[in-house]
Amino acid sequence: MTSLNKRAWDEFERAAAAAGALGLHVQTLPGGTRLLDAGVAAPGGLEAGLAMARIGTCGLAALSVELAAVEGRPWPWVIVRSDRPLEACFLSQAANWPVEIGGWRAMGSGPACLLNRDLGVGKDFDYGESADCAVLALETGALPDDPACRALAEKCGVRPERLALVAAPTSSLAGSAQIAARSLETGLHKLHQTGFDLRKVVSGMGRCPAAAPTGDDTRSLGRTNDMMLFGSQVWLALRAASDAELADLAKRLPAATSPSYGEPFLQTLKKAGGFYAIDPGLFAPAEATLTSLESGAVVHAGGIDRERLAQALGLR
User: Fold this and answer.
1) pLDDT in tens, 10-24
2) What is the pTM of this model?
3) Which domain holds residue 265?
4) 3-state secondary structure at position 302
C-alpha cells in the first residue's frame, strides 16, 4: 500500500497547484520545506479548509460543505466520509502532535505524526509507516521559521526539503472548516476509548457545523469544540460486532455520556486546568448511528443539543 505520507504529499501538490483559487499562499523556506498558509496571512476560506482536511486525511476521505439549518438559519456544515476511516481519520487526521519549538507552538496532525516515533501513533494497530517524505497539518496562529521546520523534519526522519506543511489559525474560516471535518475522527476516538478495535470499522460518515471565527484563537477553540460536542453527527458501519455489542457501543459513544458534558468547552477547559486533564470521553460526536454489516442491526444514540448549539453559535 502506498504510504499515507506519500498520499498526503500528492494532495499537498494538488492544493499548491490550485493555491490562487483556494486562497492559499505557497512558500519554500531556505532549507527546502514547503509551506501552505491557509489563513495566517493568506485569505483562506472554506475551500482552503477542505483542502487542508484532504491533506490531513491523505486523500482517503471525501469532503464537502452543505448549507443546512441551525435554529432556522442557514449554516455551513462540513461533511466527511471514508471507506478507510482508520487510516484516513484516526491514524492521520487526529491531532496527535502538540508541537513546541522555542517559543512557537502548534497542534500538529496528518501522517507525519506516524513518523515521529516519540508519539507512538499506530502502535495499537501494529501499523508502521515508512516514507521519505512527511506531511504535517498545523493549527497555529504563526507560521514556523526555517529552524523550526528543520527540527520538525528531524523528528520525522526526513530531509527538510521532503517536509510539507499546511497551516491555519483556529480563528479562521479554513481553521473552522478543517476542525469541523473531524466529526468521523471524533467518533473513532470515542470508540477507541471504549476498547473497540477500530479495524472493524469498515466505513463511516459524519457532519458538523463550522464555527464562525471570533478573531481570537482561544475563543475559537471553545466554539469549534462546542460545534463538535453539541452538533456533530456520525454514521458508522461495523463488522464482527454482535448486536449486543453494537447497542452497548452506541450508548457509550455520544459526548453527553461524559460527566464533563454540559458547559461551554472553554469553561470545562478552565475547570479542568488543561486540555489533557479533561475527561477524554467528552471528545465525541453529539449523535451516532451504528450498523452491523453482518446482521443489518441499526442502533442510535444521542442527538443534536439544539439549545447549547444555538447558544454556542450566538443565535440565542
Assistant:
1) 999 999 999 999 999
2) 0.97
3) 4-312
4) strand
